[in-house]
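Please decode residue identities from the backbone states below.
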């Protein structure tokens, strides 16, 4: 039976880079954590301590589709040494700002006889538990079958945004969350070795009926430079053709915060927050505004995005007086 994982969106969008085996171990970890804290009523989903996960070498190797114990041991070691870094969207606001860095696991232990245990820190544990309604749902079978770490990350992004039909993602953001600031410095290399690798694998699996989603993408340019890609998520779930209110609200807010540079212009932030309050009470308007944002980003130079949308919002929502 196919297993479904639900992952906090902060993990999907967090800054980290894991190899293929490390990511597969992470999927196993997420499944076990959800089984303990979400699948039953035994776990307290507000209080956490360091958590120990126990299994056997045979069971783990089978689940990871791996025959070589050394590769799994190496992945445990590197997971302990690699850090998970996250901060919220208010880096300039000391009252709201939050940041932390933590290892993915505290230790891995391969015992005599084949028993295995590894420990997850209480700091990262809440991120693997569905504490909020903002989550990413994806298939364990698909995630474990992917052969590229880039396909794994893009698969998660597709699942996160499939209800909104896709998203526009800056090239800088891809480099940041994938930790590629010093790799594939030219966009052509990033496209060839990261984006297109994920696109090709996910589309092939989708066409074979082995993946539930894939993405098509187009490039958004400023002059000759590609600054963003617009992802269109294709899903077998017909119910996702219309974006869920929860996802569209987050998407509209995220894009308006970026376009109106709220970290540098606090008055813009106040106006957008008031605009969002109005839109949430008039749900159909969220979809209209989302369409206007996409039209602006597709048809207007980036230097005119804020000016154009400000004029639109002034006319339709009295934006300047919000």
């Amino acid at each position: 039976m196919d297993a479904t994982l639900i992952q906090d969106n902060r993990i999907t969008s967090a800054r980290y880079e894991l190899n293929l085996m490390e990511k597969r171990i992470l999927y196993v970890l997420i499944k076990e954590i959800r089984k303990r804290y979400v699948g039953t009523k035994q776990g307290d989903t507000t209080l956490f301590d360091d958590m120990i996960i126990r299994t056997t070498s045979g069971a783990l190797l089978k689940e990871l589709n791996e025959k070589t114990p050394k590769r799994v041991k190496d992945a445990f070691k590197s997971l302990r040494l690699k850090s998970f870094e996250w901060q919220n969207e208010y880096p300039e606001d000391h009252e709201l700002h939050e940041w932390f860095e933590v290892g993915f696991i505290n230790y891995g232990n391969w015992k005599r006889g084949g028993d295995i245990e590894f420990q997850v820190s209480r700091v990262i544990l809440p991120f693997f538990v569905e504490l909020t309604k903002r989550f990413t749902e994806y298939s364990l079978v698909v995630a474990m079958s992917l052969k590229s770490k880039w396909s794994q990350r893009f698969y998660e992004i597709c699942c996160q945004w499939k209800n909104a039909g896709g998203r526009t993602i800056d090239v800088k953001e891809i480099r940041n969350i994938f930790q590629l600031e010093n790799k594939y410095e030219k966009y052509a290399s990033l496209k060839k070795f990261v984006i297109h690798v994920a696109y090709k694998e996910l589309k092939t699996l989708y066409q074979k009926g082995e993946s539930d989603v894939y993405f098509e993408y187009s490039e958004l340019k400023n002059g000759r430079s590609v600054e963003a890609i617009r992802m269109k998520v294709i899903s077998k779930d017909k119910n996702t053709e219309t974006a869920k209110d929860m996802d569209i609200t987050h998407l509209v807010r995220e894009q308006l915060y970026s376009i109106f540079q709220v970290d540098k212009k606090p008055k813009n932030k106040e106006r957008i927050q008031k605009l969002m309050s109005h839109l949430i009470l008039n749900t159909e308007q969220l979809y209209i505004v989302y369409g206007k944002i996409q039209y602006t980003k597709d048809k207007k130079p980036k230097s005119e995005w804020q000016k154009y949308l400000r004029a639109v919002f002034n006319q339709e929502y009295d934006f300047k007086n919000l």
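Observation: The chain has a mean pLDDT of 81.
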